[in-house]
Amino acid sequence: MEQMVISDFEKHRDFIEKALKEKFGSKYSNEDFSFIIDLVSDVVKNLIQLMREGKSQHEKFFSDIILNSIDAIIGFDNDFKIFLWNKGAENIYGYKKEEVMGKDFAMLLPAYKLRQGEKELLINEVIKKGFLANYETERITKSGKLISVSISRFAIYNENNEMIGSVGIVRDITKVKKLEKELKEKENLALIGEVVSSIAHSLSNPLNIISGNADYLLLDKGENDKEYEELKTILDEATRITKSIRHLLNFSRPVKINKQKVDFNFVINEVLKNFRYIIGNKKISIKKNLKEIDELYLDSEQIQEVISNLLTNAVQAIPFSGEVKIKSYQEDSQAVVEISDTGTGIPNENIDKIFLPFFSSKEYGKGTGLGLAITKRIIKEHGGEVNVKSQVGKGTTFILSIPINNESKD
Questions:
Q1: Cα–Cα nearest to 225, from 234, 217, 235
Q2: Residue 113 phi/psi, 5° resolution?
Q3: Closest residue by Cα to residue 323 from 287, 280, 294, 295
Q4: Which long-range contacts (CB under 8 A, 24 or more apart) does 361-370 make?
Q5: Which of 338, 347, 391, 409 has its CB 3.0 to 4.6 Å from that of 383, i.e. a possible disulfide?
Q6: What is the three-state SS of 142-176?
Q7: The three-state (H, E, C) secondary structure of 304-359, written as one string
Q8: Are strands 321-331 and 72-76 parallel, antiparallel or unpaired?
Q9: Pairing relation of β-strands 283-290 and 321-331?
Q10: What angle do CA 86, 90, 94 make, to 5 degrees?
């Protein structure tokens, strides 16, 4: 454009000189006219230079905004190959510019999103509508980490209104989604408090009667009597249910746990004493492999509830016959317990839901959907984690890990 202006000025040089001579011919010499025209030419060139520098600064300003944006800004050609990759994209996805240039954007989609046809959905939306706004989904980083993102994408057209590519703006909303999830969990906890409070009173009287009668009958029994063990089990289980109700009431608010230094394996064995009452009429064997673990600070009653919940779930997951394994070991200053079953397994779509309060895949009357929520809460209060691995048709393994040096984590 600048060269065109200069060229046009030179073309009109003779016209300008002629016009000046007609107007001021008697007052100035030819040298004066040449000087004036050269001076005007220099002014035009200087103006063009100033415009060029201004345009360059303007372009650099917007270029810096794009390249240094916190959000990922990604450019795609008409084949949806990447040609623009800013620093925001590098930070969010972990790929350097040279690693992605010319590659299909499908490399950023998790495998399950590709199977669901999300790539085609994005392409068709941009082609059909010209844009896609605030589309929330998941992406996979170079390290293999799944992140939550919000995507806005719009088509780029030339002067003939032909699409020549598109630009995507991607925002990492992983932290936002985590906060939303935590808020939802807190709302669920509040709901638990309301529900449990309404039923606690109804349950307390029958439980007190059961406990009182069992305790009374035990007075006439010695430890070697045939009915002694059964009556003691009734009393212990009624007591455990009463404590569970109390834990449920406390579940929707912070709880001060009562930690004492104990042997983790002793706590596990206490629960296993009643395993035969958990399996009922099913043909289920249990195998245990408890390795030595340093003593750690636990609330024994709450941890027994956790182990009992997981063993109960394992038994319920096995239709008729099978095997439950429980093993413990110490790893990297963590006390670890694994409880595995040969049951039906958990579908992938339910893995992220099983710890939510009131979620249950069991048939009516077989579960409240609170057991795993309580389990996660108790382990979290001990500074630990609960993880799960499952395969449909083959079984499930729950993995509990609690720091050995966790005395101060109350």
A1: 217
A2: -70, -35
A3: 287
A4: 362/316, 366/316, 367/316, 370/192, 370/248, 370/251
A5: 409
A6: CCCCEEEEEEEEEEEECCCCCEEEEEEEEEECHHH
A7: HHHHHHHHHHHHHHCCCEEEEEEEEEEECCEEEEEEEECCCCCCHHHHCCCCCCCC
A8: unpaired
A9: parallel
A10: 165
Q: pTM value? A: 0.49
DSSP track, 246-293: HHHHHHTS------EEE-HHHHHHHHHTTHHHHHTTSEEEEEEEE---
Residues 6+ apart with CB under 8 A from 237: 274, 277
Task: Give the tokens for residue 75.
Answer: 């450019």
Residues 308, 285: contact at Cβ < 8 Å? Answer: no
pLDDT in tens, 251-292: 555 556 788 888 999 999 988 887 777 777 788 888 989 998
Alpha-carbon Rg for the chain, nearest whole angstrom, is 37
Q: Give the span between the Cα atoms of 410 and 402, in whole angstroms.
A: 13
**Residue 371 and residue 220 in contact, taking contact as beta carbons nearer than 8 Å:** no
- 121: tokens are 């959905």
Positions of E strands within 227-315: 260-262, 283-290, 296-298
Q: What is the pLDDT of residues 144-195, one digit of tens each?
A: 999 999 999 999 888 888 888 899 999 999 998 888 887 877 776 667 667 7
- The gap between the terminal CA atoms of the chain, to the nearest Å, is 72
Query: From the centroid of its chain, how far is CA 282?
Result: 38
Measure the CA–CA gap between 147 and 176, rounded to whole angstroms.
11
b/e map of 16-51 (b: 16 or more CB within 10 Å)?
A: eeeebeeeeeeeeeeeebeeebeeeeeeeeeebeee
Length of the chain as a residue count: 410
Q: What is the rounded distance in angstroms from the CA atom of residue 124 to the CA atom of residue 223? A: 76
DSSP string, 118-140: HHHHHHHHHHHHSEEEEEEEEEE
Using one digit for the tens of pLDDT, what is the confidence trace for 183-240? 877 776 667 667 766 777 677 778 888 888 888 787 877 778 878 888 888 888 888 7
Structural tokens at position 191 = 């709901």
CB count in 10 Å sphere of residue 356? 18
Output the CA–CA distances (angstroms, integers) from residue 319 to 250, 288, 345, 390, in the order listed: 33, 21, 11, 16
| 254 conformational bin, left if phi > 0, alpha if psi -120 to 50, beta if neither | beta
Q: Please tell me the distance from the alpha carbon of residue 280 to that of residue 287, in angstroms, as a whole number.
A: 17
User: How do beta strands 72-76 and 296-298 pair?
Assistant: unpaired
Nearest CA-CA partner of 284 in 316, 324, 317: 324
